[in-house]
Amino acid sequence: MKSQKFKNKLLEELEKFGNVYYACKKNGISTSTYYRWFENNRDFRKKAKTAVKIGQKNFVDLAEQGLISNVGNKDQRAIEY
After folding, report:
1. How far is the C-alpha of 39 from the C-alpha of 66, rounded, in Å?
2. Quick one: 23 exposed, middle or buried, by C-beta within 10 A (0-12, 13-18, 19+)?
3. pLDDT at 38 (0 to 100)
4. What is the pLDDT of residue 73?
5. Within the chain, what is the greatest distance between any pair of CA atoms?
6. Could you report the per-residue pLDDT of 41-70, keeping only the tens digit for each?
7. What is the C-alpha to C-alpha distance for residues 51 and 42, in angstroms, rounded to an integer?
8. What are the C-alpha distances in Å from 40 to residues 1, 23, 62?
9. Comparing 20 with 62, which gets the higher pLDDT?
10. b/e sequence 51-80, b meaning 16+ C-beta within 10 Å
11. What average pLDDT does the segment 28-39 reach?
12. Can you spell out the DSSP letters for the chain?
C-alpha cells in the first residue's frame, strides 16, 4: 500500500527531530495530509505521538552535545549559556 510506505517514511523522519513540518517537507507530504492521517487513523496517531517524543528527545540530545562541544572548544558564548 503506497500510503503506508509514506506513513512509515514520515514516522522515521519524525523520530529524528520530532518536527512535523520538517518531516512532511522532507517526504513531500503536506502537513494537512499528516493531520488527516493523524485524526482518522488511531494506529498512525499512536505511532506519530511516540515518534515525535523520540524525535524531540533526540533533538535535545543533539543540541546538548553541540553545546558541550562548544564549551570544550572554549566558546565563550556557550560557556555563558
Report:
1. 36
2. buried
3. 96
4. 67
5. 52
6. 999 999 999 999 998 887 765 566 665 666
7. 14
8. 17, 19, 32
9. 20
10. bbebbeeeeeeeeeeeeeeeeeeeeeeeee
11. 96
12. -HHHHHHHHHHHHHHHH--HHHHHHHHT--HHHHHHHHHH-HHHHHHHHHHHHHHHHHHHHHHHHHHHHHHHTT-HHHHH-
Predicted pLDDT at 67: 57
Residues in contact with 53: Cβ distance below 8 Å, sequence separation at least 6, in sequence order: 18
Q: Checking phi first, is residue 29 left (phi over 0); if not, alpha (psi -120 to 50) or beta?
A: beta
How large is the angle between the packed helices 42-72 and 2-17, nearest 10 degrees?
30
Written as one letter, the residue type at 61 is: D
User: What is the amino acid identity at position 47?
Assistant: K
Name which residue leads in pLDDT, 3 or 49: 49
